Amino acid sequence: MELDNEKMTQEELDKVQEEQRKVTEQNLGKKKEEQDKEKNSEQVKVEAEKQTRIDKEGFDINEVIDDVKGMGGPFDTILTRKDFVKSSQSDKTASAGSDGITYNPEYFKSLTRSERKFVLAHEVLHIHLKHVDGSFNKNKFQAKDILSAAFDAQINAQLVESFGLEPPREGVFVKSAHLRPIEEVYNDLCMELNKPTYALMDAKYMEKYKIKMQNQSGNYKEGMHDQWQGIKNWDKESSIANKHEAVK
Predict the structure, then answer these.
(1) Domain locations along the chain
(2) How far apart are CA 189 and CA 143, in angstroms?
(3) Alpha carbons 150 and 240: distance in angstroms, whole number
(4) Using one digit for the tens of pLDDT, what is the confidence trace for 68-85?
(5) Quick count: other Cβ atoms within 10 Å of Cβ 20?
(6) pTM given for the model
(7) 62 - beta bridge partners?
(8) Measuring CA to CA, which of 114, 164, 184, 233 is 20 to 30 A from 44?
(9) How many CB atoms lie within 10 A of CB 205?
């Protein structure tokens, strides 16, 4: 509506402008109401899907994510990515990749809330420490499965000793492994698993290592074994390789 300001009195002009303002406000109000309804509808849908997943899985994965994000730093940064954590029946436990983290819902259901937090934080650190994006040079390590266990040992030690988290019973646990070079932890695992030929046979390191072990107990193998520490009644006699399967 065009206004002929020259033919209208100020009172008439004010009245028309007021009517136009009211119409504009009404239109904006209707638009906002429609947007709110759409938003609420979407929120109801999301909540319904969330509840369906909780009923099916027996736990709330978003609760676990929030627990880990609360640790701050890389935990918060990495888990802020949308849809970064997904359920997967093909995973035995949980795993990390450059495109996200997957978890087996049945495995997570068997854990306590604090244990779920530990496992998810474990996978986040694999990403943060660049174990999964191809940037870590793994070529010098002959046994990739033992290297993977060495990564796990370092991460598990950091989560237990630095963050005080509660781990599941299964896993590779070596006291203060996160304070030692990965090469040392890898070599220790090679020796413990009776696969010394896979160790990094650096003469200087091996000589120093043997002297250290002999000084501790007078026996190379026993000295190695004495360095292992149990967590949550972990059976030192059980196979480390088998214990490794649950947290990878």
Answers:
(1) 137-248
(2) 10
(3) 11
(4) 999 999 999 999 988 899
(5) 12
(6) 0.64
(7) none
(8) 114
(9) 15
